[in-house]
């Protein structure tokens, strides 16, 4: 039996992709895709074997342990063990992101869960009740577990699951000055027929497509970092027959860019909202606030787009999935036809986050999603927000529908 007051767990299922990587370390760790010499400790190995038995991976294949995920999980567990006040004061999506980024994890589809325990017997129930149940409907390929003992004997366990869609060759996180770098690697999903696309966000905020060549599962393309010092973001998208998945986002710092806030302040509203409708209108105001700063036309709220967005957010939360294709209602094309928008230009953004500001920040830091948010041709928007309560925390399931209705 797990004592209720000793079991501390939390699941954070961030946005589509929207876990952006900042490489803050030096030396060999200043490269994405650089092999890490990390070996799981015996307790961590037992935990990961138990997870593999309880939770099938993508296409029914067993989950594999990953050195980068183990290192990231250890960093978070170690921070909790050193100062448990972090759990009450600083533990958030953004805190987790920083620790994971420092470990060189660039994947965007991640799941976290953690527990504080006194006896190892408690871990089997944690794995069964929290990890396997919460992550069962999501497609993961790799895992990492970090277990650290505190000074008073309690154990701190952090579990991270990831969907690794590509395997990168070493790619720099930092450059001393402008230049051009070859980006290459191997696709790990959809088979060898899949193609890799890439988008680049420049320091100015504009988004440009990159030319990538894919052959026999290998991909490569040159990435120009020529707009001067600043932060560049490369988004890798895996595509097969119209089905696309964000494989990763690489953040590269060129020169010595001025550091900025991890979360932009788009809207000075309350941290939580009484109703989901209030949260939806807050997100609309945040979107228009950002577009206004960029000199772009503001978007009008359209009832039909609002209904379509709400249905998608509700569907994701209720059926425990995250993506543009609904198990029951089909892909984006089918859903837009059903909503009456088959013949108009449209795009959709999805996010799951513990705050509205954090969600919009992450979307803007993703080149593909940013392009939708700053598209000058769109004139209408619909936002659907559904809130999931968990142990006093909130996850916001957010859908944004953009359209050029021309009216």
- Spatial gap, N to C terminus: 61 Å
State the name of the first-level CATH class of the largest domain: Alpha Beta
Tell me the number of strands: 20
Largest sheet report: 5 strands, mixed
- Here the CATH topology of the largest domain equals Pathogenesis-related Protein p14a
Taking pLDDT < 50 over at least 5 consecutive residues as the criterion, the unreliable ranges are 1-29
Rg over C-alpha atoms, rounded to the nearest angstrom: 21 Å
Q: Number of helical runs? A: 10
Q: Which structural category fits the helices and strands?
A: alpha+beta
Overall average residue pLDDT: 80
Order of strands in the sheet with most strands? 1-4-6-5-3
What is the assigned CATH homologous superfamily of the largest domain?
A: CAP
What is the CATH architecture descriptor of the largest domain?
3-Layer(aba) Sandwich
**Which bin fits the share of residues in helices?**
25-40%
Quick structural gist:
By secondary structure, the protein is of the alpha+beta class. The protein is 29% helix and 30% strand. The N and C termini lie far apart (61 Å).
What does this protein structure show overall?
With 407 residues, the chain is α+β, with helices and mostly antiparallel strands. The chain folds into three domains: 10-164, CAP (Pathogenesis-related Protein p14a, 3-Layer(aba) Sandwich), CATH 3.40.33.10; 167-254, Immunoglobulins (Immunoglobulin-like, Sandwich), CATH 2.60.40.10; 276-403, Pathogenesis-related Protein p14a (3-Layer(aba) Sandwich). 29% of the residues lie in helices and 30% in strands. The strands form five sheets. The protein has a five-stranded mixed beta sheet with strand order 1-4-6-5-3. Strands 9-16-15-11-12 form a five-stranded mixed beta sheet. A hairpin with a 2-residue loop joins strand 13 and strand 14. Helix 2 (67-82) packs across helix 4. The protein is globular and about 65 Å long.
């Amino acid at each position: 039996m797990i004592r209720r007051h000793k079991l501390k767990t939390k699941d954070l299922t961030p946005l589509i992709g929207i876990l952006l990587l900042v490489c803050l370390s030096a030396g060999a760790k200043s490269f994405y895709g650089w092999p890490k010499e990390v070996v799981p400790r015996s307790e961590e190995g037992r935990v990961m074997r138990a997870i593999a038995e309880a939770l099938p991976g993508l296409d029914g294949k067993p989950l594999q342990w990953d050195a980068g995920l183990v290192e990231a999980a250890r960093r978070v567990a170690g921070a909790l063990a050193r100062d448990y006040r972090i759990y009450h004061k600083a533990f958030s999506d953004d805190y987790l992101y920083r620790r994971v980024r420092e470990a060189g994890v660039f994947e965007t589809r991640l799941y976290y869960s953690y527990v504080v325990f006194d006896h190892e017997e408690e871990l089997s129930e944690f794995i069964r009740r929290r990890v396997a149940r919460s992550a069962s409907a999501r497609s993961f390929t790799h895992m990492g577990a970090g277990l650290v003992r505190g000074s008073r004997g309690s154990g701190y366990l952090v579990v991270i699951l990831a969907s690794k869609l590509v395997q990168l060759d070493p790619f720099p996180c930092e450059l001393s000055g402008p230049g051009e770098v070859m980006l290459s690697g191997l696709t790990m999903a959809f088979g060898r027929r899949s193609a890799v696309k890439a988008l680049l966000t420049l320091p100015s905020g504009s988004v440009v497509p990159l030319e990538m060549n894919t052959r026999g599962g290998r991909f490569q393309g040159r990435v120009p970092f020529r707009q001067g010092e600043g932060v560049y973001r490369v988004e890798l998208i895996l595509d097969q027959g119209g089905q696309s998945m964000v494989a990763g986002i690489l953040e590269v710092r060129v020169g010595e860019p001025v550091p900025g806030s991890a979360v932009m302040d788009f809207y000075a509203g309350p941290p939580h909202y009484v109703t989901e409708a209030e949260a939806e209108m807050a997100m609309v105001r945040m979107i228009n606030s950002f577009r206004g700063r960029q000199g772009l036309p503001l978007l009008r709220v359209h009832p039909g787009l609002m209904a379509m967005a709400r249905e998608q957010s509700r569907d994701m939360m209720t059926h425990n999935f995250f993506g543009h294709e609904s198990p029951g209602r089909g892909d984006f094309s089918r859903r837009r036809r059903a909503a009456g928008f088959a013949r108009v230009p449209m795009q959709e953004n999805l996010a799951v986050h513990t705050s509205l500001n954090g969600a919009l920040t992450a979307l803007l830091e993703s080149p593909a999603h940013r392009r939708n948010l700053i598209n000058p041709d769109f004139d209408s928007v619909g936002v659907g927000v559904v809130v999931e309560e968990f142990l006093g925390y909130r996850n916001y399931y957010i859908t944004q529908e953009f359209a050029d209705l021309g009216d």
